[in-house]
Amino acid sequence: MRYDDLSVCPYLLGCETSAALRVTMRESSLEVVQGDFVILPCSFFTTSPLSRLNVIWTLAPFSSPESPIQVIVYDHGQVIEDPSLIGRVAFAGIPWSADIILNDTRISDAGIYRCMVNNPPEAGDPGIGELVLTVLAPPSLPACQWDGDIELGGSVTLSCTVAEGVPAPEIHWDKLNPEEISLPVNMEGDLSGTVQIVNVSSQTSGLYRCSASNVLGTQNCYVNLSIYSPPERSSGILQGVLLTLSMTLVLLALLVLVLWLHRTGQDGKWKDGKDEEDECYNEIRYTPSLMKRSFV
Ligand SMILES: *[C@@H]1O[C@H](CO)[C@@H](O)[C@H](O)[C@H]1NC(C)=O
Ligand SMILES: *[C@@H]1O[C@H](CO)[C@@H](O)[C@H](O)[C@H]1NC(C)=O
Ligand SMILES: *[C@@H]1O[C@H](CO)[C@@H](O)[C@H](O)[C@H]1NC(C)=O
């Protein structure tokens, strides 16, 4: 009778008062390389039948922690996935475990996952477990740019921006020729690095490389600078003098032309006037004959 009591106990009072569902996470953090699959483990221990088992996985993504999503739900034997994850997520051992498999992982999958298990009438203690998933990704192709004044004595800024990469890629700038030298980089946030070159000279010309690298790889982009050197100062002055001289000559020639035009213009006017008189005279001279004709 005592033996019976013990075996019956879990299904009676004992269950609701002392026995409780317990969730354990076999890992507290996991890393996966973007594109690979990962199994997120969540075990639970219960003494009640599993007919009313309910499992909910949520994700608070690192990219938007304030808007968590329901990754996948198991309820009364039914499975519901978040629409954004359909085809990529599944339970791996339901109802015996709450593990899930996540295929074709993406950077946006990274975040804090919570596994909540309920098995009424048992209470959870705790009925919830948590793990952090990190999705590693190689650097994306960085974008190289230059900006500034490439004339002798000017200053130039080289900038390099990489859009993606976990862990955050390190950015290096090197000048490749005539010999390879590494340049001091100013980081602007995690993903952008710039180099300042002041008072550029012909030695500044050459090929520059930005490399973005993390544990998963390296990507490079390049800038080819050619510093524009204006002609020597002395020849500059000479050119200036020549330019001024020729400008003066042109101006003089223009002046002469204008004066000449002014004069011939006056002559022309006088001549034109004479012509007009001639025409008038002609008209007058012809008019009588026309009138004559009309009378004929
Ligand atoms: C994940 O991939 C494995 C093998 O690559 C496949 O068997 C499984 O069905 C996939 N799961 C989902 C949810 O797509
Ligand atoms: C710029 O560089 C030239 C030589 O390349 C040097 O003579 C000059 O003093 C420099 N100017 C400044 C402002 O540093
Ligand atoms: C860089 O530019 C110079 C001059 O414009 C050119 O001669 C040289 O071939 C270029 N180098 C590369 C790697 O593009």
UniProtKB/TrEMBL annotation:
Pfam families documented for this protein: Ig_3 (PF13927), V-set (PF07686)
TM spans (from-to): 237-261
Q: Keywords for this entry?
A: Membrane, Transmembrane, Transmembrane helix
The signal peptide stretch is none
Domain of life assignment? Eukaryota
- Matches recorded under SMART domains: IG (SM00409), IGc2 (SM00408)
What InterPro entries does UniProt report for this protein, alphabetically? Answer: Ig-like_dom, Ig-like_dom_sf, Ig-like_fold, Ig_sub, Ig_sub2, Ig_V-set, IGSF11
UniProt protein name: Zgc:165604
Q: Which gene encodes it?
A: zgc:165604
